[in-house]
Amino acid sequence: MQTSDKNLKIVFREYKEGDEAEIINIINEAYDKKVIEKKTWFWKYKNHPNFSPENILVCERKGEIIASAHSTIQKLRFKDSQLLVGIGSDVVVKFSYRKQGIGLNLFKKLGDKLMQNGVSIRIGFFAPQLLPYYRKLGYIPIPTSTIIYRKNIGLTQYKKRILCINKRLKNRKDMHDVNLSIKFDLEGLPPFIIKVMNGKVDFITSKNIHHILIKGDPRFLKPNIFILLKGIISRKLRVEGSLRYFPKFFKIFKILRTS
Amino acid sequence: MPFDNYCIRTYKEGDEIKLIELFTKNYSQYVFSARTKEYWLWCNKKRPDVKPNGIFIVENNEKIIGYAVVSNTGNVYEFAIDKNFDFTKITSLLFSKIEAYAKSKGAEAITVYVPSDSKKFKKVFFELGYENDGHVNFAMIVLNMPNLIRKLLSSSEIPKGWNENFFFDLKQKGYPLVSSFQFCLKIKDGKTYVKEGKPKESCIHITTNTTSFIELLLEPKKIFQAIFQKKLKITPSYKFYKVIKLISLLRLPKIYISYADIR
């Protein structure tokens, strides 16, 4: 398949061997970070049991790939029968060629290909912030019977959130004389200490002296004050320490809540 | 009553057949991606972030009664437990193993996808310290409406003795990727025939747009709202109850998306 757009002098064609490096580059450029590696791209598309070169379309201009769109065909088990669905993903256009209808063209051409292959439904998993854009194209959000459960077992997320308040602490003169260490001993997580000193917050994982101890179920340690109170009242979350430290603790807690 | 003699081992070549059987049996009430051996191996074992020692299998007297596929980053891609065994006990056992494995690989969190309507999942995961992180959502476009209607009808029970002809005139404007469809549906003696094009015999005309029609297939009870808002026109109008009957038969089932099905 090869079609062209005379105004832009671009050509739409199917994937061919050797395109992958350029396609991967475009995808990573579009997201502004490395979201896909060669190994993952090969697994995701080329090594898919239903792979066919026509499931990947590229848009070329003067021999350079400027956009690509991927899809995989999957059989959906429908009681006793099966329904073919096309899962669209990684539709990307190089930044300098955006807003010229190339992405939409790729969407349409890929849809035609899927239909020719007997696909009845085309689906996509999108980030919630992209949904308004896909709605404009005609996609209808579908609720699924699937729920996500999550449990943190590492501290990176906590560390990131806590350290990001440093910028705000710099501007708070009232915090410059606060000196307090809060130890967190949360279920399923290694213990850690938040040390606030001279208007700076530190995240410590080694043993250290602490003034206040918070222990219990991390699910109640939320910015929402009602969830937090619920945890404390139900004794799922416990705050221990001398009362004289509590005014300082609330001061810090107010800032931590916003992180 | 099975004995509580559970042991956990890691995956070995050839296990996949039993695991596919267990998964299919476990989630039989949902619509999900059909598992063939080739597809299962691709979406689980061959995943770049899954190692064979990240596939845990629970056995009871050498019979596979549960399993979970875990990535180095703590994603539980697939998970099933035989309904005839102690779900709570096996899940706790399996997830303690999963958490230890994920920690050893430096994972930051454990993420698992489970059916939302199951109370037992909710209870067990709450007890294990997990929190609800929302629903999995996706969006869809119908490329071939007559074919979808054929599939939906093939999995529904058509009342015997119901003979009716319908004509669907689904027009769509304003959405670049959505097509218009015109097709006839003939119901005769419990059998259905879907044919593209305009009708040659008298029938009930259903005029709407494609997106509104899909929304009706998702929530048939919105049919009255659609009629009042003039999004749906039925001719002759006094036969609207037959259209309601039909739409309720065409209801789109909820889909269970296993983590393994998402790339």
Corresponding CATH superfamily of the largest domain in chain B? Gcn5-related N-acetyltransferase (GNAT)
Counting DSSP E segments of at least 2 residues, the number of strands of chain A comes to 12
Structural class assignment of chain A: alpha+beta
Q: Strand order across the biggest sheet of chain A?
A: 1-2-3-4-5-6
Quick one: which chains have the greatest interface?
A: A-B, 67 and 74 residues
The structure class of chain B reads alpha+beta
Tally of individual helices of chain B: 8
How big a fraction of the residues of chain B is strand?
A: 25-35%
Rounded mean pLDDT score of chain B? 90
How far the N terminus sits from the C terminus of chain B, by CA atoms, comes to 39 Å
Oligomer kind: heterodimer
Question: Any overview of this molecule?
Answer:
- Chain A has 259 residues and is of the alpha+beta class.
- Helix content of chain A is 30%, strand content 34%.
- Chain A has two domains: 2-137, Gcn5-related N-acetyltransferase (GNAT) (Aminopeptidase, 3-Layer(aba) Sandwich), CATH 3.40.630; 156-257, SCP2 sterol-binding domain (Nonspecific Lipid-transfer Protein, Chain A).
- Chain A contains eight helices and twelve strands.
- Chain A is elongated, with a radius of gyration of 26 Å.
- The model of chain A has no long low-confidence stretch (mean pLDDT 87).
- Chain B is of the alpha+beta class and 263 residues long.
- Chain B has two domains: 6-135, Aminopeptidase, CATH 3.40.630; 145-249, SCP2 sterol-binding domain (Nonspecific Lipid-transfer Protein, Chain A, 2-Layer Sandwich), CATH 3.30.1050.10.
- In chain B, strands 1-3-4-5-6 form a five-stranded mixed sheet. Chain B has a five-stranded mixed sheet with strand order 10-9-8-11-12.
- In chain B, a hairpin with a 2-residue loop joins β3 (55-60) and β4 (63-70).
- The model of chain B has no long low-confidence stretch (mean pLDDT 90).
- Chains A and B meet through α2, β4, β5, α3 and β6 of A and β2, α2, α3, β6 and β7 of B.
- β7 (140-152) of chain A pairs antiparallel with β6 of chain B, so a sheet runs across the interface.
